[in-house]
Structure formats: C-alpha cells, structure tokens
C-alpha cells in the first residue's frame, strides 16, 4: 500500500475505532428480553411516580393538600386514575374514521417507548452481571443513535395529527394541526442543539457521547445548546407553558377531545413517557449521562462502576422531571403567536448561529489554535456585535421620535362578521361594528344602591328630580 493510500485510509480507521460498538449484539436472547422488559418497566414506573409527584408538588406550591387517599400518602393515586380510565365507557364518534381513530393513540404511544432503547444507564463495557452473564447497562446502541431518537419522536407526531383528523370534528382537527406545527417547529432547533454535541463528541452514538464527557460535561462546554434544548423539549412534549394543543381551560382538550377511556389514557401516557425520554436524552447529552456528579466522582473511584451509575442517571432524570413540574406550577400559558415567534424567530436563528460558532472553534482547535485564545476571540466578537446592535437601536429610536408619530390609519369600512354564516375575525383594514349593548364611556356613571342604572330611568332621559316631585304632587 502506498503512502497516499495509507493517508486516505487513516481517517476511516479512526472513525471505525471511535464507533466500535462490538459489545452490543452479543447478549443471549433471554438477556435481551430482560433488558427490554426493564426499559418498559422503568418508563411505566417513572410515569406512575411522576404523575403523583406532579400533583403533590403543584399542590405544595399552591398551598393545597394534593392526593392523600389512595395508598399511603396518596402514592397510588396515578394507579387509581389508570384503573378509572380503563373502566370508563369507550365511545366512538359516529362520523369518525374508526380504523384511524383507534390506531392514532397507538401511533402516539409506541414511538414514545422506542427511544429508551439506545439510552445508556451505565458504562458500555461488561460492567454488571445478570444471572452470571456480564453485560452492558444498555439495551443497544447505534452509530446514529441520536438520529434514531429524532426519527421515532417525529413518528409520534403522526398519532396526534391522525387523532384530530379521524375524529370527524372541526375542533380536534384544528388542535391536531396546531400541535403538529408546534412540534415540527421546535424539532428544528432541537436538531441544531444536537449538532453542536455531535461536533464536540465526534459521534452520534449515545454511549460514545457519554464517554466524551469523562472530564467535563457538555453543559459547561455548550451552555447555549443546553438552554435551547431545555426550551425545545418543553415545546416538544406540549407541556406548560407551551400546552396550547391541550389547553383544557379553553380548548377542552384539543386533538383528543373526542377520545375517552383507554384511548385517552394512551395519549396521556405518551405525554408522560415523552417527558421521561427527553429528560433522559438531556441527561445523556449534557449532564454526563450515568456519570457521578463532580464532588462524588473526585473522592470515590467506584462511583462510576457497578450498579451505582444507574442511581446517578435516575437522580438526574428526576431533577429534570421536577423542572417540568416547576414550570407548570409557575409560568402562565403563552399565546400561540408568542410560541411560534419564539420557535421560528429566536430559537432557530440562535441555534444556527451558535452551531456556526461551535463549528468554527472546533475547526480552529483542530488546526492547533489555543482554546483560551479562541474563547476570548469569540467572546469579543459576540460583545462587539451586541454593542453595535445596541447603538443601532438607540439611533433608530431617536430618528423615529424626531420624525414624529405617524398618523393613525383611517378605519376601513365596517363589515358583517356573520355574512358567510360563520363568525369570522376582521381582516386588515376592516373594523367590527360597535357592540350595541355597551354604553359609551362618557355616558357611564357610578351606580349606587337604589340609584338609576338603565337608560329608561329619568336621570338618563334628561328629567330632573324636581320633575318627579311635581308629578307626584300632581
């Protein structure tokens, strides 16, 4: 082999060495079944615990009692809710497409369970022994494991869209389309946040990404990517304050309005399983995965060996689930236009610019430049851009004030919102007719006990109190 061929083959060998996943696929079939059952049981138990935890934490935040009847301290409340939903009457709307109507909850729930297959609960080596067989604490891994997670998450969107379409009703259809638009919009920024992790770890394999964080977690190296992913994972799971597709207070449920019994329970199960999945992905990508936190890992060498890594992984996932609950009990629901503006005009541009910066820094690092010099240069460039934009905004505001306020546009012709048979909002340039039952502000007056409060009273018609006395005297 010539020297040129050796140079050409060297990068390929490096990639193959980095993506060596030979430890997976060697387990006997019964051990694979045990791992699969464990992953399913882990999700189900975490969901049952999360529902109770959410209701108790929100009750604590709002100075309420919370569930305290089913089981000790109300810990079996979510199990009682599941039994109640299974025993409720299962209704199917007459106008529904029955086949799609029944398959939609399954399509939404099954992909939510599939993503956990590539999440590492511990080191990828033969770390633990199960019935005398040494194995890794992970069901399987792929060279493109993160793309697999994005793919199965995208399939779950079909369940929501099909649920709204197959219900045979207008409002579930609108709720399904709105949820689809929201989830697709936030997946774009989520993918850009993933790309930054791929650049730093050099791999899309989940086990290799965790191994790349052996000395420093990616939350410290890529804080902007972590923040972007935290926002997008809340929007991806349709949780408050981004729960417009299921805003029960004003939409009755959105895409799942026409569902009941076990099919409705499957939609709720898919939501909570997705919460656990995105929390596990966040832990794997940014929080060191199964690695012990910094103070523990420094003085205890066995913290990252044996069964202990599973403890650190579960603790990190539960902290992120608490973050979900904290948001729901703290922030009000945003408007849909604010949600889409945040996704398209803020998160996507910021994630793309950040990805370009990360790629530039990685390319310069590969060329031998010092990391501290690169960090200072990038920070200086960002500060300079912010200062320039700040100065431009100041001069723009001054020029707007100097030019004076623009005259208000003349109101357009009034229109009938019920002309087409359905109430429609006004288009730009059109104005709604005034509401007849509401009096103008200058005609309103404070109504006191026993005083006049309608236009039929004498004081509103121009009669004076003396006129009333003269009439009584007459």
TrEMBL record:
<protein>
    <recommendedName>
        <fullName>NADH-quinone oxidoreductase subunit H</fullName>
        <ecNumber>7.1.1.-</ecNumber>
    </recommendedName>
</protein>
<feature type="transmembrane region" description="Helical">
    <location>
        <begin position="186"/>
        <end position="205"/>
    </location>
</feature>
<comment type="similarity">
    <text>Belongs to the complex I subunit 1 family.</text>
</comment>
<keyword id="KW-0560">Oxidoreductase</keyword>
<feature type="transmembrane region" description="Helical">
    <location>
        <begin position="342"/>
        <end position="361"/>
    </location>
</feature>
<keyword id="KW-0520">NAD</keyword>
<dbReference type="InterPro" id="IPR001694">
    <property type="entry name" value="NADH_UbQ_OxRdtase_su1/FPO"/>
</dbReference>
<comment type="subunit">
    <text>NDH-1 is composed of 14 different subunits. Subunits NuoA, H, J, K, L, M, N constitute the membrane sector of the complex.</text>
</comment>
<dbReference type="GO" id="GO:0050136">
    <property type="term" value="F:NADH dehydrogenase (quinone) (non-electrogenic) activity"/>
</dbReference>
<dbReference type="Pfam" id="PF00146">
    <property type="entry name" value="NADHdh"/>
</dbReference>
<feature type="compositionally biased region" description="Pro residues">
    <location>
        <begin position="423"/>
        <end position="435"/>
    </location>
</feature>
<dbReference type="InterPro" id="IPR018086">
    <property type="entry name" value="NADH_UbQ_OxRdtase_su1_CS"/>
</dbReference>
<keyword id="KW-0812">Transmembrane</keyword>
<keyword id="KW-0830">Ubiquinone</keyword>
<keyword id="KW-1003">Cell membrane</keyword>
<keyword id="KW-0874">Quinone</keyword>
<keyword id="KW-0472">Membrane</keyword>
<feature type="transmembrane region" description="Helical">
    <location>
        <begin position="33"/>
        <end position="53"/>
    </location>
</feature>
<feature type="transmembrane region" description="Helical">
    <location>
        <begin position="142"/>
        <end position="165"/>
    </location>
</feature>
<keyword id="KW-1133">Transmembrane helix</keyword>
<feature type="transmembrane region" description="Helical">
    <location>
        <begin position="272"/>
        <end position="290"/>
    </location>
</feature>
<feature type="transmembrane region" description="Helical">
    <location>
        <begin position="217"/>
        <end position="235"/>
    </location>
</feature>
<feature type="region of interest" description="Disordered">
    <location>
        <begin position="402"/>
        <end position="474"/>
    </location>
</feature>
<feature type="transmembrane region" description="Helical">
    <location>
        <begin position="373"/>
        <end position="392"/>
    </location>
</feature>
<feature type="transmembrane region" description="Helical">
    <location>
        <begin position="310"/>
        <end position="330"/>
    </location>
</feature>
<keyword id="KW-1278">Translocase</keyword>
<comment type="function">
    <text>NDH-1 shuttles electrons from NADH, via FMN and iron-sulfur (Fe-S) centers, to quinones in the respiratory chain. The immediate electron acceptor for the enzyme in this species is believed to be ubiquinone. Couples the redox reaction to proton translocation (for every two electrons transferred, four hydrogen ions are translocated across the cytoplasmic membrane), and thus conserves the redox energy in a proton gradient. This subunit may bind ubiquinone.</text>
</comment>
<feature type="transmembrane region" description="Helical">
    <location>
        <begin position="99"/>
        <end position="122"/>
    </location>
</feature>
<feature type="compositionally biased region" description="Polar residues">
    <location>
        <begin position="452"/>
        <end position="463"/>
    </location>
</feature>
């Amino acid at each position: 082999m010539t020297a040129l061929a050796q140079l050409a083959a060297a990068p390929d060998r490096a990639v193959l060495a980095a993506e060596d996943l030979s430890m997976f696929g060697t387990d006997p079939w019964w051990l694979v079944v045990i791992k699969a059952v464990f992953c399913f049981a882990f999700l189900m138990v975490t969901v049952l615990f999360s529902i109770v935890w959410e209701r108790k934490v929100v009750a604590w935040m709002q100075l309420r009692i919370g569930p305290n009847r089913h089981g000790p301290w109300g810990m079996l409340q979510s199990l009682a809710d599941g039994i109640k939903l299974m025993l409720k009457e299962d209704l199917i709307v007459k106008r529904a497409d029955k086949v799609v109507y029944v398959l939609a909850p399954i399509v939404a729930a099954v992909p939510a369970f599939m993503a956990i297959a590539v999440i590492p609960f511990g080191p990828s080596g033969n770390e633990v022994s199960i019935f005398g067989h040494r194995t890794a604490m992970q069901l399987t891994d792929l060279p493109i494991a993160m793309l697999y997670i994005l793919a199965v998450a995208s399939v779950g969107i079909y369940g929501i869209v099909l649920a709204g379409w197959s219900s045979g009703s207008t409002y579930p259809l609108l709720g399904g389309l709105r949820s689809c638009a929201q989830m697709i919009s936030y997946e774009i920024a989520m993918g850009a946040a993933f790309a930054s992790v791929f650049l730093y770890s050099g791999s899309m394999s989940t086990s290799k990404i965790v191994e790349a964080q052996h000395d420093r977690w990616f939350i410290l190296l890529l804080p902007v990517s972590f923040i972007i992913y935290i926002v997008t994972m809340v929007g991806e799971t349709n949780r408050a304050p981004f729960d417009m597709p299921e805003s029960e207070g004003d939409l009755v449920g959105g895409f799942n309005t026409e569902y009941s019994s076990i099919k409705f329970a499957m939609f709720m199960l898919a939501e909570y399983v997705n919460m656990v999945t995105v929390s596990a992905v966040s832990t794997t990508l940014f929080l060191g995965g199964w690695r012990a936190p910094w103070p523990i890992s420094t003085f205890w060498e066995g913290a990252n060996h044996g069964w202990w890594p599973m403890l650190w992984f579960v603790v990190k996932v539960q902290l992120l689930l608490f973050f979900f609950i904290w948001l729901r009990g703290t922030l009000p629901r945003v408007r849909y236009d604010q949600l889409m503006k945040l996704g398209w005009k803020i998160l996507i541009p910021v994630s793309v610019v950040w990805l370009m910066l990360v790629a530039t820094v990685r390319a310069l690092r590969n060329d031998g430049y010092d990391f501290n010099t690169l960090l200072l240069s990038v920070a200086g460039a960002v500060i300079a851009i912010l200062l320039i934009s700040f100065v431009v905004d100041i001069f723009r505001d001054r020029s707007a004030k100097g030019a004076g306020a623009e005259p208000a546009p003349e109101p357009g012709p009034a229109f009938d919102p019920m002309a087409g048979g359905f109430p429609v909002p006004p288009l730009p340039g059109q104005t709604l007719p005034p509401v007849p039952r509401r009096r103008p502000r200058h005609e309103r007056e404070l109504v006191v006990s026993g005083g006049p409060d309608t236009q039929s009273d004498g004081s509103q018609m121009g009669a004076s109190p003396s006129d009333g006395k003269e009439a009584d005297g007459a």
